[in-house]
């Protein structure tokens, strides 16, 4: 992901926003019965696939009431599954899917990997949605695993597919790996996603023959970056778990610190990075990510997160990543917008001033990204800076339309087009945010010419048509989108289509 290293940015690019109905739902697993209860004002969507996914098995509710669901007589692998619950507010202004990991099985073993009845091999040599077959093949052939967690709606996933996986260099360099692809939108993938703590897509995992993590990276990365990762795995093929047990030299400490960081073990990473001289650029990303995780777990920690974000910005004030941190700071301040309004506005102004400076001076922009992780925005640095600034402007409610128009301007500068599907999806979002719906319609139509049966693109076109009040056309394309969707994609289509 950067990787999602990019971590503050990672949450913007890859992670889903916090659910609006998160406080309305309470769940419990006791004596083989899973219970879910909703607060007043909310109900479970009886048209959605509520239930527990455990490997290939899907367990439906035994009791289904508007505000109460029970799934009884769970045992074995079903206790290691993930509950999917679809919650709507009673005014039906929105519906959201909650995924609740149930934990370990009654035998105390870790969650089992996902099986699939398909297991086909794609044009890039990846075994699709059949991790167990890939793992068995790796063990039989004594090879390491390379696993791609992705989704078809993810811009960075599209770019890494088109530019890296499809390249001859990548195929040659990874010929000694068993490669597997996991689509996170397939419900059965939820168990594997939880097992490996996947926070965003794309996430590329390198695993031992036993399925233990060696290292990972996120987001689109150029082949030069991937070559460095492949070289590191070749030189140090130990899993994180095995590396922890080795003698801790300066070299192993540096390797372990970065592996901790990329696997979201921020406390462990910081414990090693604190004494490094000089501290690696991942250090402040880890500080911020740990603080944000603590604040999410307990809002009382928000003040500490705000201070750490301020410290991070102060440590590297002219960098592109400081714009990312200003976005996170604006988000944290926005939790109490009335009290923090003055400071929130100043953060947005600082972000805008720095953005304008970088976008009008190529040398300054080049310098600003040196401490950052650009991921899918490699070669599109101006688009990256403008997009993060627009997010800050939107949170602060300050000249947000102009900020999104600035993103469009950068997209035009880089000549983003349908041959660049990942960047085009970013630009499409900006056009919708700037209310440039006719431009958005032209862009999504050009994308559909390249992939006419792509359900995700059809869904995006439906959204644009709704904004243009072309409801009859929106319904027609929405029905096509639903036909060409699956898993979570279907849920993304159903809500706007129903409206």
Give the strand tally.
Answer: 14
Residues in helix, %: 40-55%
Low-confidence stretches: 1-17, 104-117
Radius of gyration from the alpha-carbon trace, in angstroms:
23 Å
Mean pLDDT: 90
User: Biggest sheet: strands, sense, closure?
Assistant: 5 strands, antiparallel
> Could you give the distance between the termini?
33 Å
Secondary-structure class:
alpha+beta
Shape: globular
| Proportion of strand residues | 5-15%
Work out the helix count: 21
Commentary on this structure:
With 499 residues, this protein is of the alpha+beta class. The radius of gyration is 23 Å and the shape is globular. 50% of the residues lie in helices and 14% in strands. The chain has 21 helices and 14 strands. Helix 19 (455-467) packs parallel to helix 21 (488-498). The two termini are 33 Å apart. It has helices at 7-13, 131-141, 155-165, 168-173, 190-195, 223-235, 240-244, 250-262, 266-273, 282-297, 302-315, 320-333, 337-359, 362-368, 381-396, 400-413, 421-433, 437-450, 455-467, 471-483, 488-498; strands at 25-30, 33-38, 42-44, 51-54, 57-59, 63-65, 68-71, 82-89, 95-101, 126-128, 144-150, 177-183, 203-207, 213-218.
In short:
The protein has 499 residues and is α+β, with helices and mostly antiparallel strands. It has helices at 7-13, 131-141, 155-165, 168-173, 190-195, 223-235, 240-244, 250-262, 266-273, 282-297, 302-315, 320-333, 337-359, 362-368, 381-396, 400-413, 421-433, 437-450, 455-467, 471-483, 488-498; strands at 25-30, 33-38, 42-44, 51-54, 57-59, 63-65, 68-71, 82-89, 95-101, 126-128, 144-150, 177-183, 203-207, 213-218. It contains 21 helices and 14 strands.
């Amino acid at each position: 992901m950067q990787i999602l290293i990019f971590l503050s940015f990672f949450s913007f690019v890859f992670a889903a926003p916090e659910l609006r109905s998160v406080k309305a739902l309470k769940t419990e697993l006791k004596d083989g019965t899973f219970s879910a209860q909703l607060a007043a004002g909310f109900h479970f969507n009886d048209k959605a696939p509520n239930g527990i996914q455990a490997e290939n098995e899907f367990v439906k509710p035994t009791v289904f009431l508007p505000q109460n669901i029970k799934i009884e007589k769970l045992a074995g692998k079903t206790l290691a599954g993930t509950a999917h619950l679809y919650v709507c507010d009673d005014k039906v202004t929105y519906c959201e899917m909650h995924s609740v990991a149930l934990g370990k099985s009654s035998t105390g073993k870790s969650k089992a990997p996902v099986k699939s009845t398909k297991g086909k091999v794609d044009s890039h040599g990846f075994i699709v949605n059949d991790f167990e077959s890939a793992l068995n093949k790796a063990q039989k052939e004594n090879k390491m695993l390379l696993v791609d967690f992705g989704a078809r709606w993810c811009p960075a996933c599209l770019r890494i597919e088109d530019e890296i996986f499809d390249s001859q260099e990548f195929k040659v360099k990874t010929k000694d790996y068993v490669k597997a692809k996991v689509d996170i939108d397939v419900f059965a993938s939820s168990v594997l996603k939880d097992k490996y703590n996947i926070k965003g897509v794309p996430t590329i995992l390198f695993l031992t023959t036993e399925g233990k993590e060696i290292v990972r990276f996120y987001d689109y990365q150029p082949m030069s970056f991937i070559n460095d990762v492949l070289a590191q795995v070749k030189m140090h093929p130990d899993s994180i778990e095995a590396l922890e047990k080795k003698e801790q030299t300066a070299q192993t400490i540096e390797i372990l610190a970065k592996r901790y960081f990329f696997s979201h073990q921020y406390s462990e990473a910081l414990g090693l990075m604190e004494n490094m001289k000089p501290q690696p650029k991942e250090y402040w990303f880890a500080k911020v990510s740990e603080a944000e995780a603590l604040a999410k777990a307990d809002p009382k920690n928000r003040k500490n997160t705000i201070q750490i974000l301020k410290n991070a910005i102060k440590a590297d004030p002219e960098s592109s990543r400081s714009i990312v941190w200003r976005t996170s700071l604006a988000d944290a301040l926005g939790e109490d917008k009335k009290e923090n309004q003055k400071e929130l506005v100043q953060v947005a102004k600082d972000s805008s001033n720095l953005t304008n400076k970088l976008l009008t001076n190529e040398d300054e922009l080049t310098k600003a990204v040196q401490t950052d992780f650009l991921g899918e925005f490699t070669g599109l640095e101006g688009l990256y800076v403008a997009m993060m600034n627009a997010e800050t402007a939107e949170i602060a409610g300050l000249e947000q339309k102009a900020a999104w128009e600035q993103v469009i301007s950068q997209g035009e500068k880089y000549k983003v087009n349908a041959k660049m599907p990942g960047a085009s999806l970013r630009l499409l979002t900006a056009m919708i945010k700037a209310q440039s719906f006719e431009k958005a319609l032209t862009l999504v139509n050009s994308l559909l010419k390249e992939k006419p049966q792509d359900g995700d693109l059809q869904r995006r076109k439906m959204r644009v048509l709704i904004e243009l009040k072309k409801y009859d056309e929106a319904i027609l394309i929405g029905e096509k989108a639903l036909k060409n969707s699956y898993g979570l994609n279907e849920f993304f289509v159903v809500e706007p289509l129903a409206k």
